[in-house]
Input
Amino acid sequence: MNFTETAWKVFNQAIEDYHVSDDVNTLINNPFEKDTLERILYAKNWIDTVQWHLEDIIRDENIDPTEALHLKRTIDTSNQKRTDLVEFIDSWFLKKFENITPKPDAKINTETIAWAVDRLSILALKVYHMSQEAYRESASEEHRAACKAKLDVLLTQHEDLSTSINQLLTDIENGDVKMKVYKQMKMYNDESLNPILYQKGQQK
Output
């Protein structure tokens, strides 16, 4: 089983586990051993799955404004955790390939391994939920047909993205691509970088 096959299997296990209770407040129960890549991937997708459903909830037109504000801040916190975990995955691969010497003409990829994995995790969620709609008995035949067509596109995207990630890993292992990691430098949660937050602090 190659890397993306493993990741896809882990992502879908996390999605299935979440939907046992289908509750954004459910605490993660990671089944994989500490310090394994599978444990990291499971945690990554669990964050994505919870956030997927938070984004659904906050779009309720009848939501109480106070609850919406609370959810928005929860989503912001989730986004930061998601980014931190993606960067941790990149660090994991940086360690894995630390003894690889890139060739003099090695290319630099526009996207790191972990950010591609992030897209794969989100894609797993899209496939799961589009499948639910494509086979929802209470939906119209027209709706199911439209969703099945979209599902076919998503499955093609899964195949292409998996191939691309595996090729990138091979290119790094062969020294054809130089692995270089950049931090996201998100500013909105940082009280020293977000003007709204640090100006508020100065007014006290």
Remarks:
- The chain has one domain: 1-200.
- The beta strands are 107-108, 177-178.
